[in-house]
Amino acid sequence: MNPSSSEKINLKTKQKRRRENIKQSQPYINMRKLQEAMKQKREENELKEKKLSKKMKTQEKTKKKATEERTITESEEKLNTNTKNKEKNDGKGRSYTLTIALPGSILDNAQAFVLRTYLAGQVARAAVIFNVDEIVVFDERKRSDRDAPGGSKGDSNHLFGRLLQYLECPQYIRKQLFPKHSDLQYAGVLNPVASPHHMSVNEESIYREGLVLSKSSKPSGGSLVDVGLKKKVLVDQTIPSGQRVTVKLNTLRSKKDILKGTAVSFSTPRTEAGIYWGYTLRMADSLSSVITECPYEEGYDTIIGTSDKGTSVDELKLEKFRHALVVFGGLQGLEASLQADDKLTVDNPRYLFQHYLNTCPNQGSRTIRTEEAILITMSALRPKIDLAQR
C-alpha cells in the first residue's frame, strides 16, 4: 500500500530535521576530539620536556664535575709550582737555629695565677714572632733551696713549661694531647701564637702537624694521622697511636677518602722550605745545663747573654752561625742565676758568653722585665742575624 502524500511530507520533514541535527552535533564531536588531541599533545610535550630537563641536568652535572676536577688539577699544579718556586727562592730553606733561655721564676713576679698564665703567653708570642726554634726554661734556684721545706716554687718552672707546650701545639689536636689540668685552668686568657703550623681546615700546605690515630688495616701497613683536614692521612711508617708527628703530604686533594703522606722530622719544613714551624721546649735544672745539654750534636756556636751591665748591642758584629743561644736573666739578672749554680766556678757571667750585651742602652726605666727584654733583644738582633746569614 502506497503512503499518502501527507505521510510522504512528514517523512521528508523528519529526514531533513535528522540531517540538520547531525550537522549541528558534528562541531561538538570535533571539539571533543580536538580537546583530547590537545591533551595528548600536551602530555607528550611535558614528557619530552622532562626527558630534556633530565638530560640537561646530567650534562650540567657532568660539566660541573669536569670543571671541579680541572680546577683541582690547576690548583694542585699552581700550589706545587708556588712551593717549588718558594723552595727555589729559599735555597735549602733555613739551616740555622735560634734558641732563647730564661728562668721559670719570672712567673713568680705575677701576683695571680691568671697573670702568670698570661705572662707565659707573652713569652710564647714573642718567641714565635722572632722565629725562635727552641725555648729553654731553667731553674735558677740553689739546690739547697729546692730541697728545703716550702721550696715548691719550682712549680713555676713546670707551669711555665706546660703553658709553652700548650700554646705551641696546633689547636686541632690540643684536646687529645692536653687533658684537663689545673695548670691550664686559665688557658682561655691566652692569645693565639698564630704560628704557620697552626692551620685551619681550609689552608693549604704540603706540611702539617698531626696526631696518629691508629695503625692501618691494609697489608702494606702504615698509620692513620689526623692533620686537621676533612680527610685523614695515611703515612707509610708504623707509629704508635697518640704520637704527634709532622707530615709531608704527597698531594693536597684526592678523590679517595684518605690522603697519602710521609712522616718527617719536625725541622723538615724549616730546612727544606724555610717555613717557621714553631719551637721545641727543653727544661734545664741550672744555667750551666742550658749550655751543656744542648740537643744539637755540634753544640751552640754563638752564645749571647743579656744584661744592663753588658756591651752595647750597637757594637755587635755577628759571624755566621749554625746554632745561636740567647740567655735572659730573671728578676735579679743573670748574676743571680750564676751564683745559684754550683757547677760554675766563674764569678762574672760575662765569662760564660761570647757576647754579653746590653740590648737597651740608656734605658729610661730602672728595670726591664724579662718578657720586655725578649722583644727588645730580638728586635735588636734580627738585622744582625740576617746580615750574618747572608
TrEMBL record:
InterPro entries: Alpha/beta_knot_MTases, NA-bd_OB-fold, Put_MeTrfase-C9orf114-like, tRNA_m1G_MTases_N. Residues 33-50, 57-93 have a biased composition (Basic and acidic residues). Transmembrane segments: none annotated. Residues 11-20 have a biased composition (Basic residues). Pfam families: Methyltrn_RNA_3. Residues 1-95 are annotated as: Disordered. It comes from the Eukaryota. Belongs to the class IV-like SAM-binding methyltransferase superfamily. This is Uncharacterized protein. It comes from Octopus bimaculoides.
